[in-house]
TrEMBL record:
Name used for this protein in its record: Nucleoside diphosphate kinase-like domain-containing protein
Nucleoside diphosphate kinase-like domain: residues covered: 202-346
One function term, GO molecular function aspect: nucleoside diphosphate kinase activity
Highest rank taxon of the organism: Eukaryota
One BP term from GO: CTP biosynthetic process
Similarity comment: Belongs to the NDK family.
Length: 373
């Protein structure tokens, strides 16, 4: 980007009435020159800030080593190619960058499959954020948990400032969660084929933020409420559904009068597809998600559960903002259809063929024979 031009003030403006150049005129002129230089510097700094990207994409070993040599704290979003970088945290990173500045806080993203150093993070469904300072790993956050991320960024940034200013010893860690006995997410092969599968030992369910909520810009608000309610977002993918997908997805409602309207709505624009989990020892994830959503009809939700998502963000049927699986069996069916690479811990590696089988069964069945859930 070209630097802003520096314009000096015209000397004739400062001449006395008799067109002489006095010491007072010289002082006024130098003061104006100084102001012009200060304005030029501010414009130049603004131009440089515009050039700084929020997240640097690290795709080679050379870039990785360059990133590790950065002064201050670097937060790396390690992502899988099939789902991309974690979008829900971008607004948090933007806020932190504005608040802290770019000198000591850096953000980067790296696809696990592109770098050998990230090999053990491959095939993991939930987002992973690695915190580096002085070329060493100092913290790890799993899941798109914005409050925890912000807390960790602030704590680690303050710790790094003390290291740089006072020479304190940097606290370095190892990512113990990657040990074989503790690893919750594994990268497997499907019967020796090359297709990657993602598995989770946690109970999971599907959540969809529907097109009506997305088009009204409510996605980030809903995601924040999901996280505040204690859910782990293992993945978040923005996708525009096809008619074939939605006719299969809602086949159990094919006999209803609103079926065509529902299918049309779900294909009308982008949705956000989320895989949700909860920590062990808490309420069943499917039940907990249905409770947070509230009754299907937004009017009923506002009357019976005014704090529910459908009460707050839904308008009328079928524009009720969010979808959730009815039960654990329904969750398996829906995840197999929309995320063929997702695998529950107790499943054999057949989730992708299961989705194909579901599609075949849909076109083989007459609408009147579809099961009602």
């Amino acid at each position: 980007m070209d630097q802003p031009l520096l314009f000096y003030p015209i000397k004739s403006k400062f001449l006395c009435q008799d067109h002489t150049w006095t010491a007072a005129a010289e002082q006024k002129y130098q003061t104006e020159v100084q102001r012009s230089r200060q304005g030029h510097c501010l414009k130049a700094m603004g131009s440089k800030k515009k050039e700084i990207a929020l997240q640097v994409n690290v795709s080679t070993q050379e870039l990785w080593e360059e990133m590790l040599s950065s002064k201050g704290l670097t937060v790396v979003d390690v992502y899988q190619g099939w789902c991309g970088p974690c979008k829900p945290v971008v607004s948090l990173f933007q806020k932190m960058r504005v608040e802290v500045g770019p000198d000591l806080l850096h953000f980067a993203s790296a696809e696990a499959d592109c770098l050998d150093v990230l090999e053990r993070y491959r095939g993991k469904c939930e987002p992973t954020f690695l915190f580096y300072a002085g070329g060493e790993l100092v913290a790890v956050v799993r899941g798109a948990n914005a409050p925890l991320l912000e807390k960790t960024i602030r704590e680690q940034l303050e710790a790094e400032k003390r290291v740089l200013a006072e020479g304190r010893e940097r606290r370095v860690i190892k990512d113990e969660a990657l040990s074989d006995e503790d690893e919750c997410f594994s990268h497997e092969k499907n019967n020796g084929d090359d297709e990657d599968l993602v598995s989770s030992e946690k109970a999971c369910t599907l959540a969809i933020i529907k097109p009506d909520a997305v088009v009204h810009g409510k996605t980030d608000e809903i995601i924040m409420k999901i996280q505040e309610a204690g859910f782990d977002i293992l993945t978040n993918e923005e996708r525009t559904m096809t008619e074939a997908e939605m006719r299969l997805f809602y086949q159990h409602r094919a006999g209803e009068d609103t079926f065509e309207k529902l299918v049309h709505h779900m294909c009308s624009g982008p949705s956000h597809l989320l895989i949700l989990a909860r920590t062990e020892g808490t309420e069943d994830v499917v039940t907990a998600w249905r409770t947070l959503m509230g009754p299907c009809d937004p009017h009923v939700a506002r009357r019976e559960q005014p704090d529910s998502l459908r009460a707050q963000y839904g308008t009328e049927m079928p524009f009720n903002a969010v979808h959730g699986s009815w039960d654990s069996e329904d969750a398996r069916r829906e995840l197999a259809l929309l995320f063929p690479g997702f695998q529950f811990s107790d499943q054999i590696p057949e989730s992708a063929p299961l989705a194909k089988l579901l599609l075949q069964s849909y076109f083989a069945l007459a609408p009147g024979n579809h099961r009602k859930m």
